[in-house]
Amino acid sequence: MAEYKIGYIDTYRSERNAFIGGILITDCYGIPLEFRHTDTVVPSRIEQILYGRALDHYLKAETMARSLLTDVENKPDILIVPDESYYNLTRSYTFPFVQLSVARREPLATHGESQEISENEILLQILSLREPVRVKVDRKNAPTLASVKSILLDLGRTMDVLEPLSRVQDALKYLAENSNK
Amino acid sequence: MSKRQVLTRSIALSPHFTSCKTPLFSGSQIVSHKYDLIPDALRTESSLFTLTIIVKVINLTLLKIKTNLMRFRRGQQAKGSTRNVPIPKIKLPHRKSFQVTIKTVKIKNAYFIPLKVHRRTTTSQSNYLDNAPVSREMLNLRAIPYTVLSDYIGTLAEKHGVRFTDLKLIGVYDPIPVDIVSSPVLDSYTGKLRFSLRREKGKRPKCLRVAYAKIKSTGKIIQAVFPLS
Fold first, then answer.
1. Running DSSP on this structure, what letter comes out for residue B27?
2. For the whole model, what pTM was predicted?
3. How far, in Å, CA of B121 to CA of A43, rounded?
4. In whole angstroms, what is the distance from residue A82 CA to residue A168 CA?
5. CA distance A125 to B61
6. Which of residues 87-106 of A touch B (CB under 8 A)?
7. DSSP single-letter state for residue B70
8. Which of B1, B83, B197, B209 is the most exposed, having the fewest neighbouring CB atoms within 10 Å of its CB?
């Protein structure tokens, strides 16, 4: 099996409206190779008003994710993103951005089986006896879905491909709460 | 009173005029003289009224207005430029054109909104997650066929020498790289299995499925591993 590097990127918004972003690069067993995070950013009230609904997207994708992906030393083979707001960045990087979630439904018949939902989204049975994983890529990168599927099936035999996202969330939460102490 | 005789005198109130009768129109011709009322040429004097126009040259340099730039995107910076603007049809003795300076103020004290993070955030590497525990979600036992579950429980009973009925299956977890796992802990509240992973270079850990069960009579927790499928 190829030694894939898998990236997990996420942001955390604390109760006092502080944003922090982080990226975790793991090996194929989920062991951290690199964890990088941004400084905490607290948008002022006027900034919140001026940016409105775009604030979240701007901070998450345009500011934090771009900085993190530029600075990270271990470039991942695949990047797991929590939502669609990161898809705008795909054209700037060579690795695919993938959205993963557990599909709350019966497992598919066999390991490795997939079921197409749309041209850029599939259900994938990574391991047997589990709920399938919903795999989604940017519509423009729909042709990469086949290679993404192959990487995920390989990774799924050695790690839980969804689990590191919760580690990133926990780490960001800890850092945000301790940044101003 | 005695009555006297009053002497009266007649005094002519007006001197005596002699009048003679002169015929107004004695038949002679009335002689008239002709005067040219309209002269042949008017004599004029020309006076030159030099109109002095006071031209006030207003300083056309725009007022410097202090502004705050709210920069949202790169490339929208204010740029200053100077242009000569000729003013046609106005003849001024010494100047042919004004130099009008259109100047946008270069802002020194600009506020960047929002985000002190403009398009770039400082990032730093952290080892916070290096030793963070890894977790695995329990497989949904309801989704596992009964034959598979009974096979798992049978294997556990056989391996640990207990009766099939004395076992209660806790959970099944995968994939677990059993060679590099240390200090596994079953979280009874969330049902998650937490463990740490050792870093061992050059060795390819074997990933397996692990089933945990509790011996009802003793309360001891036992485990058995199964290949991934």
1. S
2. 0.70
3. 13
4. 11
5. 72
6. 106
7. B
8. B1
